[in-house]
Every structure is written in structure tokens, then in C-alpha cells.
Amino acid sequence: MKVLVIGSGGREHAIAWKLIQSPKVTKLFAAPGNAGINQIAEEVKIKADDVEGLLKFASDNAIDFTVCGPEVPLELGIVDEFYKNGLKIFGPQKSAAKLEHSKIFAKEFMKQHNIPTAGFETFSSGKKEKALAYIKGSKYPLVIKADGLAAGKGVIICSNETEAIAAIEEIFGDKVFGSAGENIVVEDYLTGAEASVFAICDGTDYVVLPPAQDHKKIGEGETGKNTGGMGSYAPANKIVTEAVLDRTKKRIIEPVLAKMKSEGSEFRGVLYCGLMIDNKGDPYVIEFNTRFGDPETQVVLPMIESDLLELLIASTEGNIKEHELKVSADDYCCVVLASGGYPDKYETGKVITGLEKVTKDCLLFHAGTSLKDGKIVSSGGRVMNVVGKSDKGLRDAIDSAYANAELVNFENKVYRKDIGSKGL
Ligand code: AMP
Ligand code: GLY
């Protein structure tokens, strides 16, 4: 089969790496890919949000199956467009992807169907005064979120009223999130342990992948600014125990699938449940995403021993029930190497060295890299994902990831030193 992967980050490198292990894949393309992905897939110079261009490429080249990594093309309706043209693609249609691209839709949906999530109110920019009045009487901390997609940056945690007023002024006044901040969700602050659970869904049934934990802040001990994710590990079984996973299935995944279907928006694709698990082991939804998470995918996919392409095809064809998932017993830890300055304005164009030195069992997934004059250089905020693996436990996987992270170098490389420690 000719397969196309859309996207250019570490997540897409992991997806591409896993897909080429399938005997069914005869040729892999990546649009646009990066310096790592393009070593295993043919580069297609079309950006991920150019739906028309991607559609034309897939039609002209008789692509048998497409996997979309990022969220923006899903909001733009890439799956609907491919379906209309008789092309097979993994992911939700636009109306189902709304679970990610409209936080208000997701919150109202959860409230209506008793899916556990933080209490909330919503406000539009025209009702700024109402929003300001609401936060006056609120309990702090309080969380303010832009309704639309904001590249993981649309969430502001306010410790007091002054910060909440500033947040509302920034979103409604300065329009820091553009049209994504036209409406906001103001929600209660949840405490507990965070985890990510991915369910591959076919509209009715689903398969759950091993749980993972992301590390969203730039600094050790979850301090400093939010990032796209500075590292991950899997399986996160200490936090997502069998009991927690069971509750997540019964209280969250199953009602989402049943209600989306009965409301006419069958959910096919990855339902990413970003959870807060309280001290009683009850999971609450922080957010839904409708695609694979980054950098969780870089530790979750290596755990899957069965054929990923078959699983993704089953999701689009509606027969996931027949799919048996085989999962490895090893532990994985992913350390993200980022550019100096990230998550603010960051440096690019730094030559990356030492890639050939990493140990055989270590996986390297490129994130923001490109080729320049025959050299691999940094071209994004998150540059490289170093994944350590071990059959001796998480401690050993962490040690392997860090030993290898030392071997890969570029000027002003930044990384967190405590990835995985919450899982020990
Ligand atoms: P999100 O983009 O919605 O995943 O939010 C980014 C991060 O903000 C999450 O990973 C949490 O650490 C934090 N966060 C979001 N919503 C809440 C909440 N209601 N209570 C506590 N923390 C939250
Ligand atoms: N790891 C967070 C995300 O993919 O949104």
C-alpha cells in the first residue's frame, strides 16, 4: 500500500517509523516531514494545513491510506474532503474533531452526558463585563481557556483575581489568541495526577493504548511556562492503574463514543483523553484531543507490537473489535531536546551533532529539524526526541534516555532533567 503521513514533528516521525514496520506498506510519503522522517519516507513539499494540495497529491498518486498527525487539518475538514473523493484517511471528520477544536463544545457535551470534568462557565468577547463579574466571586486558582485551537498555549492558570482580569483583558482585549479566543471557558482548578490515555476508535468500538504521562512545563518539577511537551514515559501504570483505566473506559470513552454516534458525529480516530486523576482514583477530563499526542506518541507507539497500519485501517473501516492489540512489557522514556529560548522566541539553524553516537536500543525521533547544505540543523522549538527503552524497568529506561541525550548536541540545547521521575 502507498501510505501518506501528514505532519512534521516527533509524533509524525514515530508514526512513520512504526508504519514502515508493516509488511503492507510498500511506499511511504511524508508531507512535509522533517530531516528524520524524510530518511524513511519520500518528502512531499506540501504543508499540513494545505488540504487542497494534500487532496490533489493523494488523488494524483493513488495513495491508499493517509494518516493525519496534527489537529489543524482535522479542523479544516481534511477527513471529510478525502472521504468525498473516495480516499481513505485515518482521523475524525470535522464535526467529531470539534471535541478538540472547540473547548466549549467539549465542555457542554461532557456536562450534558455526565462525563466527569471541571465545573465551568463560558463567555463570549461581547460579554466581557459578565466574565469579569464572574471571576470576582470565584475560588482561586481558576483556569481560563480559549475556545479554539491555540497550539497548546490557550490555557491560563490564574492564582488570583488580578491575574484573571489580566487574562481576560489579554484574550478579549489584546486578542492574544486571535479568533480562537473569541469565546472562553472559565473552569474550576483540578488537582491530582495528569495522564494521557489514547483510544483508537471506529465510531462504535475502541482499543486503548498503554497510558502515558507528558511533562508540559519547561522547568523541572512542573515550573515555568507551558510548552508543547518536554518529555514523556509509558506505560504510566502507577498513575493509570487497572481500576483508573476501567473508570476511564466506562465513564469517559464509552459515553463519548455512544453519544457522539447518537448525535450524528461518529467518532473515528484517536480520542486523546487528557486526564486529571484525583486521590481517590477518579479520572476527570482536562481536555480531549482528536489526534495522537506529542510527545506521548513517541513512547506509546514503540510499545505496540502489532501492526499499526492494520489498527488504523480498522478504525476507518469500523471493525476494530476484531483487532487484537499486542503490547510490549518494556518501559520507554522520551526526553525532548529543545532550542535555546523555547517556549518563547527560540533559535534555529543550529547544526546537530552526535546522532550517530546513540546506542542501538535508543530511538531518535526528529521534531524540528531540516537539512541545510547536507547538514541536519534545528528548525523548531522542540528539536529532537531521545527515547530510552528497557526491559529492566522505568529507572533504566530513563537512564538510557539521558545517557543518549548527552550524546546529541547543538548550541544552547535545553532539556528537563526529571522526565519520568513521577512514574518511579
Ligand atoms: P490543556 O491544553 O487543556 O491540556 O491544558 C494545559 C495544561 O493546563 C494541562 O496539562 C494542565 O496541567 C493544566 N490545566 C488545564 N485545565 C486545568 C484544570 N481545570 N485544572 C488544573 N489544571 C488544568
Ligand atoms: N502532549 C500534549 C498534546 O499533544 O497536546
Structure write-up:
- There is one protein chain.
- The chain has twelve helices and 22 strands.
- With 424 residues, it is α+β, with helices and mostly antiparallel strands.
- The protein folds into four domains: 2-76, Rossmann fold; 120-188, Dna Ligase, domain 1 (2-Layer Sandwich); 196-322, ATP-grasp fold, B domain (D-amino Acid Aminotransferase, Chain A, domain 1), CATH 3.30.470.20; 331-423, Phosphoribosylglycinamide synthetase, C-terminal domain (Glycinamide Ribonucleotide Synthetase, Chain A, domain 4).
- The strands form six sheets. Strands 3-2-1-4-5 form a five-stranded parallel beta sheet. A five-stranded antiparallel beta sheet has the order 12-15-18-22-19.
- The protein is globular and about 55 Å long.
- The relative contact order is 0.13.
- The model has no long low-confidence stretch (mean pLDDT 96).
- It binds adenosine monophosphate and glycine.
- Adenosine monophosphate (AMP) binds next to strand 17.
